[in-house]
Amino acid sequence: VKAKDDRFDVDDAANTLVLQEWYESSTKPMPASILINGKGRVNGEGKYKVKDGEDELEVLLNYLEGKGGHFQLDKNEDHDTDNFTTNYEEFNVTTNHKYRFRVIGAISQNFPLRLSIDGHKFTAIAVDSLNIEPVPELTDLWLAAGERYDIVVHTMESTEQDSAYKIKVLGYAHPNDKKHPLCTIAWLKYPGQKIDPSYVTPSDCTGFDLESDQRTLNPVPNNIKAWHHRIEAADLKNTSIMGDIFIADLRATKEQPTINLFSGSTHSALLNTHYIEFTGNITFNGLRMRYPDVPFLLQDPAEETHRCGSECDFNVDFTKLPYGDLATYSNCTKKTPSAPNLKPGECQHVIKEPWVPGYWAEFVLINNYQGAAAHPIHQHGGWYWVVGMNKYDANVTVDRTFIMEQDKKCTTGK
To answer: What is the DSSP string of 1-14?
Structure first.
């Protein structure tokens, strides 16, 4: 029997908020609205368009490259105020309970989103499925692409407000300058409360500003002054301190496994190293994923004619005992697809690792696409550690070959 979790008393998967920005069309990536669980409304007062006199293609490319969009509001001719076909998401709660909410940043571009709840504060208890020491009395939470947070909302002991409370979500097409806002809501509804069916979020997001006293988790990391004046790990539970809380100061509830496999040993549990290069065309080492008709893990037998990438094994040299000197190694074999009529560089890109509990694989990610923001990278179904990051202070061509040569020199000492 699973032990009761005293951090919350209501845990329902229905209390999940999937946040994402929405676009005018797949061929015209002009941010048009924010959705919660696929629901929202577009205001009739205006929609964004490229500023008059500017090149639309160039502006949209800059936006897609993470540099922020420069738009202006224009009359939304498609909006019909009297004929809504969409609604906002609703979450029903009762008084004096601790509700667990899962918040997912299903965001596709450089469009961080901020969540707050009118009349309520909340506690963060998990990040990307990893339990953390609770961070209480939060006023708002920012999420970027691929991020997930679990929060606990302690509902009011009683409420005399007739209308439901708004869960507010706000983002900016230009996050660094906080320009061109988009916003939406969901309803947090107590028994007896009503929802205004005519409500539409204002096009300029009036009313979405927070009060000055804030405890903000995971703010957009573009202000070095905010970092230096942040609430640090030792003070997270001191709810009288207002300010920003960065993920570097969050702490897991339990220690994670070490990369040294055996206690007191220098034996590394690192199996192998893979070098992954991005060149601006959203490929890994020039390979673009061709998704299979049947998910990889459900294929029986496995259909490998379209697969590319590498397949690695695991070997142990038992002649190198005791364990402190145990030699393990992994050989990786390059795979090429055998199926005909594939486009160059298009295949089912798979890096197949052996099942060796306790061991690790290393990935070196190389971004040599100058003038663009790095594309978000996240891993489904597991965790990874970031153990290093650097850039060169000299004018050199940084690509996969260069980095592999540099690593080789470090290993051999040459």
So the answer is: -PPP-TT-SEEEEE
Q: How many residues does the chain have?
A: 414
Closest of 134, 68, 127 to residue 103, by C-alpha: 127
3-class DSSP state for residue 161? coil
Q: Which amino acid is at 16?
A: T
**75-94 per-position pLDDT tens digit:** 777 666 667 778 999 999 99
Q: Which of 177, 114, 40, 16 is nearest to 32 (CA)?
A: 40
pLDDT digits (tens, 9 = 90+) for 211-243: 667 999 999 988 889 999 999 999 999 999 999
What count of other Cβ atoms lies within 10 Å of the Cβ of residue 50? 20
Tally Cβ neighbours within 10 Å of residue 266.
9
- The residue whose two tokens read 């991020």 is 147
CB of 366 closer than 8 Å to CB of 278: yes
The pTM assigned to this predicted structure is 0.76
pLDDT at 34 over 80: yes
Burial profile 139-151: b = 16 or more Cβ within 10 angstroms, e = fewer? bbbbbbbbbbbbb
Q: With bands split at pLDDT 50, 70 and 90, how would you rate the model's confidence at 323?
A: very low
Q: What are phi and psi of 71, to 5 degrees?
A: -125, 175
Which amino acid is located at 116 in the chain?
Answer: S
Distance CA(399)–CA(200), nearest Å, equals 49
DSSP state of 158: -
Residues in Cβ contact with 269 at an 8 Å cutoff, skipping those fewer than 6 apart: 259, 260, 261, 358, 359, 360
H-assigned helices in 305-351: none
Asked if residues 253 and 281 have their Cβ atoms less than 8 Å apart, the reply is: no
3-state secondary structure at position 224: helix
Taking the C-alpha atoms of residue 251 and residue 132, their distance in angstroms, rounded to an integer, is 5
